[in-house]
Design brief:
0% helix; mainly beta
């Protein structure tokens, strides 16, 4: 992560945008800023149609799991996230988390 006094940018050096569908097993986890806008905060991977495995710190607060609004496909809706906490304090959560998504009707 690169930081500036007024700007914070996150990127992978030499990386680029992925075409939709290029990585079908990947999931994006979004958070809402105070104004309600979504921004990507974590990633995970699909283990079946309804379950995403990610890092436990990504799901400390259930409200962190969101679906992107700019996508042109119909994603599963966020469901319940269950972090496996390997530390006694949630702020130090490490290890995996499992999120069960609600499929669109």
């Amino acid at each position: 992560m690169w930081k500036n006094k007024s700007i914070q940018l996150k990127f992978i050096i030499g990386g680029g945008d992925a075409e939709q569908g290029a990585w079908p097993w990947m999931a994006a986890i979004h958070e809402r800023d105070p104004m309600g806008a979504l921004y990507p905060s974590c990633t995970g991977f699909l283990i079946d149609r309804r379950h995403v495995v990610s890092a436990a710190h990504c799901l400390i607060e259930e409200t962190q799991v969101s679906t992107p609004h700019e996508s042109d496909h119909v994603p599963p809706r966020p469901g319940r996230g269950v972090p496996y906490l390997s530390h006694s304090r949630p702020t130090q959560a490490t290890g995996p988390a499992l999120s069960t998504m609600t499929l669109p009707s």
